[in-house]
Design brief:
This is Polysaccharide deacetylase family protein. It is found in: Secreted. Pfam families: Polysacc_deac_1 (PF01522). Keywords: Signal. The chain has three domains: about 240 residues, TIM Barrel; about 80 residues; about 35 residues. About 50% of the residues lie in helices and about 10% in strands. It contains 16 helices and ten strands. Strands 1, 4, 5, 6, 7 and 10 form a six-stranded parallel sheet that branches. A two-stranded parallel sheet has the order 2-3. The chain has a two-stranded parallel sheet with strand order 8-9. Helix 4 runs parallel beside helix 15 and helix 13 packs across helix 14. The longest helix has about 35 residues. The termini are far apart.
C-alpha cells in the first residue's frame, strides 16, 4: 500500500518527531469498538481489533509520551483550556462482550483509563446484534446465496425480492429485521438465514461475537479506571427532540439500574449528529458528546461535537503513529486548505462565466 510505504519513509526521516508539537496542548480522543474473539476483524476491520494490535497501540501511546486521561478529566481540562503537553482519552463504543474479555484486561495491564459508551437495547436482550450477525453470516458463506423459499414467510414482506442480487438481499433482510420485526422474529429470521447459508448461528450466539456485555460484566468492569457512559438505548438518534430525549433517558435509566452513578457524557450512535441535537442533549444534562469526525480537540471545539480518531484492524501501525505525532492533523489541515482553494477557484470561474455571458448579450 503506497500510503503506508510513504508514511514509513516520512517516519524514517524523522519528520514525525518534528511535527509532534502540533498535538501539544490538545486532546486526542481515540475510538474503539470491539476486540477479536475469533475472526471478526477479517469481516469488520473497522469495528474489530486484535488483542496484539491493541497492545501495540497502548505501547505507542506510552512511548510517545501521552498522558492518558479519564474522559471527564480530559473534557474538564479542555473546557478550561488547562491541557498541557500531550493528552489522550480512550473511548470504546457499544460495549461488546469482547470489551470485558479482551479490552479491559489489556487496559488494566497498562493501567490506562477508558470510557465505555454502552448501548442498552441489545444489552438487555443478550442476543447477537442482528445487523452485524447477518453481515457476518453472509461473509462466512462466501458466494452462497439463500433461496427465497428458505426464508419464508419473511421474504413475502420484501418488495421485488426475486430481482435483488446477493448484497441487496442481505441489506433488505437487515432492514426488514431492524425496522419491521419484533426481537423474537428477528432471531427466527437470523436462524433461517444461517440455515440457508449453511452457517452455524448457534455458535455465533454462544461465543458472543456480536453480543453486548451482560449485567455482571458491566458491574465488574466499572472501576476507577473504567467508566460507563451514554450511547442511546436503541443505537439511533433521530433529528426529533422527543425521540432524542427518549433515547437518552431510556439509556440512562437502564444503566442506572446496573450502576447507580452519574451519566453525563454521550457518544453519537454511528457517528450521526446534527447541531439541532445540541440543545436537546444539554436539556438532558449531557455535558459532552463525541462524534466520529477525525481530528484533535482544541479549547474552541464544541463539547457537543468532540472529534475522535477511529482505530481498528484496518489501520496500520504507522498510520496510528502518524496521528500521535501530528502528521494526521497536518494532512487534514492541508486537505481542508485544498478544498477551500478548489471552492474559491470554482467561485471565481463561475463569476467570470457570468460576466462573459452578460457581455455577450
Amino acid at each position: 500500500m503506497f500510503k503506508v510505504f510513504l508514511l514509513r519513509v516520512i517516519r524514517g526521516f524523522g519528520v514525525f518527531k518534528l511535527l509532534k508539537p502540533l498535538n501539544r496542548n490538545k486532546l486526542l480522543i481515540l475510538c474503539y469498538h470491539a476486540y477479536e474473539l475469533k475472526d471478526e476483524s477479517q469481516a469488520f476491520p473497522k469495528l474489530f481489533i486484535k488483542a496484539e494490535t491493541f497492545q501495540k497501540r497502548l505501547t505507542s501511546l506510552r512511548k510517545a509520551g501521552y498522558n492518558v486521561l479519564p474522559l471527564n478529566t480530559g473534557v474538564d481540562l479542555l473546557k478550561r483550556n488547562k491541557l498541557h503537553g500531550y493528552n489522550a482519552v480512550i473511548t470504546i463504543d457499544d460495549g461488546f462482550h469482547s470489551v470485558a474479555d479482551v479490552g479491559i484486561p489489556i487496559l488494566n495491564q497498562f493501567n490506562m483509563p477508558a470510557t465505555i459508551y454502552l448501548t442498552t437495547y441489545y444489552q438487555q436482550k443478550q442476543t447477537p446484534i442482528f445487523s452485524l450477525a447477518v453481515q457476518y453470516m453472509f461473509w462466512q458463506a462466501g458466494n452462497r446465496t439463500p433461496s427465497l423459499s428458505e426464508l419464508e414467510p419473511y421474504t413475502q414482506q420484501l418488495t421485488h425480492a426475486e430481482h435483488l442480487d446477493r448484497q441487496q438481499l442481505m441489506w433488505a433482510l437487515i432492514e426488514l429485521g431492524e425496522d419491521h420485526l419484533s426481537q423474537q422474529d428477528r432471531e427466527q429470521l437470523a436462524q433461517k438465514i444461517a440455515k440457508a447459508l449453511a452457517v452455524d448461528y448457534e455458535t455465533i450466539a454462544r461465543e458472543k461475537l456480536f453480543t453486548v456485555m451482560n449485567d455482571q460484566q458491566i458491574q465488574s468492569s466499572f472501576s476507577p479506571n473504567i467508566d460507563i457512559q451514554l450511547h442511546t438505548h436503541r443505537h439511533q438518534l433521530p433529528i426529533d427532540q422527543q425521540l432524542t430525549t427518549r433515547e437518552i433517558l431510556e439509556n440512562r435509566y437502564a444503566l442506572e439500574q446496573l450502576l447507580p452513578k452519574t451519566y453525563d457524557h454521550f457518544c453519537y450512535p454511528s457517528g450521526f449528529w446534527h447541531k439541532q441535537h445540541w440543545p436537546w442533549l444539554r436539556a438532558t444534562n449531557v455535558q459532552s458528546a463525541t462524534t466520529c469526525e477525525a481530528g484533535l480537540n482544541r479549547p474552541d471545539t464544541s463539547l457537543m461535537a468532540l472529534k475522535r480518531i477511529l482505530d481498528g484492524e484496518y489501520i496500520s501501525q504507522v498510520e496510528f503513529e502518524a496521528e500521535l505525532y501530528g502528521f494526521g492533523e497536518l494532512y487534514r489541515y492541508f486537505k481542508r486548505f485544498v478544498i477551500k482553494i478548489k471552492h474559491y477557484i470554482k467561485q471565481v470561474r463561475h463569476t467570470e462565466d457570468s460576466l462573459h455571458a452578460r457581455r455577450a448579450k
